[in-house]
Amino acid sequence: MSRLLLVSNRLPVTVKAEKDSVSVVRSSGGLATGLSRPHERSGGLWLGWPGDVSRLTDAQRAQVESQLTGLRCVPLYLSASEVSRFYEGYSNRVLWPLCHYMLDRIPRQDRDWEIYRKVNERFADLVVRHYQPGDTIWVHDYQLMLVPGLLRQRLPGARIGYFHHIPFPSAEIFSTLPRRQELLKGLLGADLIGFHTVSYVRHFSGSLLRQLGLDTDIDRIIWDGREVRVGAFPMGIDVSAFEPLARDSGILEEVATLRRKAEGQRLLLGIDRLDYTKGIPRRLLAVQRLLEREPAWRGRLRFIQVAVPSRTQVDAYAAYREKVDELVGRINGTYGSVTNVPVHYLYRSFNERQLVGLYRAADVMLVTPVRDGMNLVAKEFCAARPDEDGVLVLSEFAGAAAEMDSALIVNAYDVEAMADAIETALEMPEDERRSRMRALREGVKARDVHWWAASFIDRLQGLKTMAEKGLKS
Ligand code: G6P
């Protein structure tokens, strides 16, 4: 295996500052676990932003640097203005809503493009500085869409992959972006471009045709005298890490305690980053609708919604939080009693053990984003259910729906249909619950995150580079 240079906006670590010392802890997120094996085996480097370290002293910074070196991570520090204009600005105020079909959330005037381009150049410079001939470079996600093209200019013979972790929108939507051509050309610097689903691959091809006049074979494009491959690689989760937790006796005791406290009630669960793509308000309205139209469920449902704080400096997220707070208050005000409320809303982060406990306790898991690249929560829920029970209600607008057709698939814009699906899930006979869950678990196990990383890397490393073809050096 050649040395792997992984490039993502965030490094797979969290920097935790204590009084005098500071520690760098590995993250447990999807990308971090999925790429940890190839990162270690290849002896390569991971380049990215370690998060905000502006409050650290010089001595603490030095500690962070040495711990990062130990993990073979190379930091790229973002200034306060880069955080606000590259990360919060162009990445999360423009590209994020665009790829999630939310054009009305994009500011009318885009002022952050230049900074986006400059930060992408800084990433490319850092990669070039660490590149050794024979390395494989793998760039991740929408924050870095120009990096493959910038690298191609400077390292024409390099092997470069890119993976887009969020939806790629239809050509109609993508064409509204003033910088649409620059971004497409940036991606075409790669040898292999990966998406979660075949639909996103089609959308991407549609944009290439419309914007650059490229008539593609769907998975093969000739651009600038080079061949670029495109493919669907659905990301999975680290099933081997979830299985033991889901059987852990300490966690099972907590599950029993939670179930005892909710005696006589059925548990509905939602777990999301607090993001306007996740469909939390419509999900709440569906629960409200069910209580409104079926008085028999009143007092017998407990909906636990975990909302993990995210991108809190972006105004749309603050406004969304207020909307969710208000809805929760309204539903609890209407259907709560002095001893019980229907919605248990928890705005904070949970660790993996706590999450597995919640997954294991739930009767029905509600994953109803209005748009989502993949959604790994749906997969985590199934991996956490070795008891083969629990029903997954899944939005057709999550990439995961393309693979998980044994879930109850719903239109997340249709509140009434979601209320119906929740009721169907609550009343589903045990044998149907089991057969659906068994099928879901098989898929989740067969295509885990290690399978995902290995299939992308194998495909990329199996392609002949320009240097190997002797076309250019
Ligand atoms: C999504 C994106 C990732 C991003 C993550 C968390 O999953 O695809 O690129 O890292 O959200 O968002 P944040 O803005 O905190 O990095």
From TrEMBL:
* Coiled coil ranges: none
Task: Tell me the protein family, please.
Answer: Belongs to the glycosyltransferase 20 family. In the C-terminal section; belongs to the trehalose phosphatase family.
Q: What is this protein called?
A: Bifunctional alpha,alpha-trehalose-phosphate synthase (UDP-forming)/trehalose-phosphatase
Q: Which residues of the full protein are shown?
A: 1 to 473 of 721
